[in-house]
Amino acid sequence: MTVVAAKQEIMQTYSASELYEILYPAPAKSATPQAMPRRAAHKAPTLRPSASSVELDEKWTDLQWLTNQLHSMELRIESEARRPEQPSKLPLATPKRGTEAPPDEHPVVSAKAARQQAYMERLTARHYGKRERRRATAARLQRHALVEHDATQTAIHKLGYAAAMFKPGSFSGTYERALNSEVMTPTMLDDFLRRNFDVKLTPAELGCVVRFMDVNGDGCVDATEFLREFWKFGMVEHRRAKEARLREKQRAERRDAALRATALARFASPRPVTVAETYTVEDLAQAEDSLANAAADFDNDSVYAHNIRQLFDGPPMTAAELADTIRRVWHVCLTSSQIAAIMATYDVDQNGVVDGTEFYHFFTALGRRERARRLRVANLDKARRRHRADVFQRRVQATYGSVRHAKIEWPETVKVKSIIRAKTAPAASQ
């Protein structure tokens, strides 16, 4: 009988209430209550029957739901049967002295035999305890050695990144069904990671993960152990990413502080200004270009601009004062020849000083001229890009918009009489 036929027979034989009692039996009640001393009565907890968390409702009439429940029971029973039986660590219970027992159940044992039996039980318990501790130590050392492998490191990084980016409320039914099976083979684990977390492991990484999470050494991974290690990897990856962001933030703060200190040391400290005796037309053009770029980026309507205007509304400024003000306010460093060109151009009286108000008007005029030039360049670039787009569109339409006639090379046309003549010629010659 197949499994499907057995399931159908079970569901046809039993009702929903009977299946409920089979899947979730009620706890057995003790017929004879045990006596308890009065002194320990107030300390002992009250025993309550453990009620089932599953209630008998409308879903028990659903055939698909009952099939899933029976399938989960089969997987659970199969996983329990697949696990090897562990020897008991506790010694066998010895009968207390003075208790009367029937001769068939408890044979009479001498005192020496009882001492030997107790000694053997203690020795067995100690041996099993040492073996379990030795096995746990070997498993811990093996896991520690596996962590040093490159494949394990890359697999842990992939799983940790998936766990850190995973949202618990977004898993689907596939995720739940995969975790209902308590034991996953390497193939099931690989398919589960690929489908639910988009994690693709290489064969070496998959082997390291299975060996790392395999507790009992049967080549399979327990779902509970996998989830525990999976969330551990996610916590480690989240902490690592947080520390990396913190280090990057501290590095950026140190870099900004160094740049700020360099700028303050360059522009805030007074510097001796020297004026060259001669200059060229190129020096004047370079100085005007530097001032024009600074003026184009300067906002004349801000409060900062009003405060700067008050600096230039004072008394006339010498070459050193003008160069120092330009350097501190607009961060424009002029050479000695460029300063000489500016003084020679805007010093009308040739007395070695420049009127600040007139220089500020000249500065704003340079800004307007530079902004107009940038606008013209942007418009020309926009028109050039539009022209290239139109040319490309016309080329695409000419290439793919019209129907192209296929070039066909037909074979040579042969007349029927020539074919008959070619076939009859060899026969006539024979």
Kindly describe this structure.
- The protein is mostly helical.
- Among the domains are: 1-24 and 64-77, no CATH class; 113-144; 149-243, EF-hand (Recoverin, domain 1, Orthogonal Bundle), CATH 1.10.238.10; 281-375, Recoverin, domain 1.
- Helix content is 65%, strand content 2%.
- The protein is built from 16 helices and four strands.
- It has helices at 3-13, 16-23, 38-41, 63-82, 111-147, 150-165, 173-180, 186-196, 203-213, 223-267, 281-296, 303-312, 319-330, 336-346, 356-401, 416-429; strands spanning 183-184, 221-222, 317-318, 353-354.
- Residues 97-107 have a biased composition (Basic and acidic residues).
- This is EF-hand domain-containing protein.
- Residues 78-110 are annotated as: Disordered.
- Residues 334-369 form the EF-hand domain.
Order of helices and strands: HHHHHHHEHHEHHHEHHEHH
How many E strands?
Answer: 4
Main β-sheet, in a few words? 2 strands, antiparallel
Q: Overall 3D geometry?
A: elongated
Q: Percent of residues in beta strands?
A: under 5%
Keywords: Calcium
Biased composition (Basic and acidic residues): 97-107
InterPro entries: EF-hand-dom_pair (IPR011992), EF_Hand_1_Ca_BS (IPR018247), EF_hand_dom (IPR002048)
Region (Disordered): 78-110
